[in-house]
Amino acid sequence: MTGIGGGVELGAQAARSRALAVLRVRSRALAVALLPAAAAVILLAGGSTGHLVGGGWDAARWAVSVLALLVLAATAAVALVVARARPAVTPTVAVAEESAPDLYRMVRDLADRLDVPAPSAIALTPDCDSWLEDRTHPAHGPPPARDDDDLSDPVGPARRRSAAAPVLVIGSPFLWWMRVGELRAVLAPVVAGTGPAAHPDIAAARRFIRGLDAAVAATSTDGRGPLARAARGGIGGVSRLLLRGCRVHAAEMERGVAAAAAERAQAVDYGLRIVAQEQVGLAYAGWDRLLTRVALPAWRMGRWPSRLDVGVVAALTELSRRDRLAEGFASRLGERPACDLLEEPGLMDEAVSLLAARLFHGGPAETGPDWAPVGWEEYPEEVVDRAWRTDAARLHRVLDTLGVRRAAEGAAPGTDGPTLSRVLDHLTTTPAEAPVPARDPAADADPDATPDTDATPGTAHHATPGTGTATPDDQATSHPQAATASDPQAATASDPQAATAPDPQAATTPDPQPLTTPDDQPADAPATPGSADHSNDGNGTEDDDDDDLAGTTPRGAALAAGLSAQLAREEARTQALASGTAPPPPGTASGPAATGTALWDDRALPLLPLQPPRTGREILTAHITAMVCCAAMDTAGATPGLDWLDGPTLLVDGARRADLAPHVRSLVETGDPAPLRAWLSDLGVRPEKPVRLV
């Protein structure tokens, strides 16, 4: 224990010395601001005593006094902004003590074992992390009531506020996946941080840093006039200068606090902490996979899964069955889960799930007709089936705008509906067609070549200026967010025919997530050059579009451009409808407790977007995959399903079919439908039969 105590003391001393260094920066800034005032006092005192007399001294007194007043006014303005600026607060779901008495009891017992103050409150965050957050700023509201508060205390509420302990924020996936002992071991070093946080110097240094950071954020907005903009710029410049002076000391102070807390926590469940850290990494992997592969498709369809944390357990259990490295993790499920520490875990999971939808997707704060919760048992029908049929409907609408026939000449009556054969025939590359060239292939087409029986005369199958929806402006947007960020109205006006196409659901239904498999584009793949923005350089060259659609056929390139433009228009209409409604009051949410959203900007949602924009080829592949799945469901008896690790999946006779992706890529990249047709024939899918769309 001597070594542990020595480590704690060394870490605490390092943190305190760095905190004093931060406070010295504040003191030096104040001293510099008072220098003109001190010089003015000296000059005035010298004139009143008859020592500093004469015209030169009088001019100096006036000049220095005016300068001192200006500097003092500027200093007061900066100090007022720093003091009144509201520090950012992490959006969380508050956990009242009456809704989780066992959890509060466990945290207080842990604080007693560590000999540190107990956290003032507990909150949940939809993330795989835990930390302490200081919410003692007056803008955060009154401090939580404590049993040992003395209302007759003469020091008043200000002293009690400054002495309040920070709030313990716990990642909700930890509660549902970890066992009680593992959660206690994970929270031990976090709770131990309340000890250094209670030191007056460290607390004062942290308040100063948070105030400067909040002042920079408050002055970053444009003022209403030139004077307001100049004042904001000056105050923001001073705040940034002070932040740069404190940056190194603040970082070292936090390292010292973390080192002291880690050393103190070694005395609590040290052996169990090693196992618990493995669970932290596993929970993070399952949570990330669940959000990107399962939750994101539902959010895009206007549905938010109401049991995300339960889904984490299901996803990690499925992972333990597939991964031999995780075989031992399933045996833990017999122990008491940490969510049993909550009185109503279902309601708390629902509140956290809604907050996750807001943070990662930007959904509304309350449920409504276009933003409804969905249970896991309803997910295949409410999300997967609707997503595929919405994509298929969009695919056929774009084919209509390109002038592609509903059925070939001489086809049987009743086959002019939305069929998979229409898509396959249109994307099939004939021997007379050249690969994707840099110029218009129709200009050099062989007059003796076999004509396209699926397209009307004059239909273009490549993305060139003036070919319906496949314009450079349409190709310039491969994702809805890219178009609305530049000019939402331009996206709607670029194609009047498609914009007026009858589609009542497209105005309120965002683009769903495509069917994915482990071999497809990974959910956390970084954005490739040209995937986020495709712009014309003004000289007739489109390098980004060429990079995006270089692996497709001319017809595929035109279809991908049309789909990208259609998605941009739908997203623009959705945002226009959302902007026409009044935003909900801050801090409102459904569930057992209100989310702490009063001090975070809910106008800049999503705060943490999950995925980069998709390229045109990815959008085309997703829509063709959706059309294939719709045909399989309507003609071969397949059903939509949910895979906890890969999201929407196609089930044939109850078994998952994950071999569709390479056949679709072959059609998109080479225009060869043979592999996909063989796959369809093996399943008994009839591509010539019309499918049901939304």
Mean pLDDT: 76
Structural class: mainly alpha
Strand content: 5-15%
| Unreliable sequence segments | 146-162, 434-546, 580-599
- Note the total helix count: 23
Major sheet attributes: 4 strands, mixed
- Taken from the alpha-carbon principal axes, the silhouette is flat
Fraction of residues in helices? 40-55%
Termini separation: 68 Å
Query: Radius of gyration, Cα only, in angstroms?
Result: 32 Å
Number of strands: 9
In spatial order, strands of the major sheet run 1-2-4-3
How would you portray this structure in words?
The structure is a single chain. This protein has 694 residues and is mainly alpha-helical. Helices cover 53% and strands 5% of the residues. The chain has helices spanning 2-48, 55-84, 101-114, 156-162, 172-177, 180-191, 194-197, 200-218, 226-265, 270-300, 308-322, 345-361, 379-401, 420-427, 472-475, 480-486, 488-493, 496-499, 543-549, 554-579, 616-635, 661-670, 674-683, and strands spanning 93-95, 121-125, 131-133, 167-171, 303-305, 372-374, 639-643, 647-652, 655-656. It has a four-stranded mixed beta sheet with strand order 1-2-4-3. Strands 7-8-9 form a three-stranded antiparallel beta sheet. Strand 7 and strand 8 (647-652) form a beta hairpin. Helix 1 (2-48) packs across helix 8, helix 1 packs antiparallel against helix 9 (226-265) and helix 10 (270-300) crosses helix 11. The longest helix has 47 residues, at 2-48. It is flat and about 110 Å long. The N and C termini lie far apart (68 Å). The model is unreliable at 146-162, 434-546 and 580-599 (pLDDT under 50).
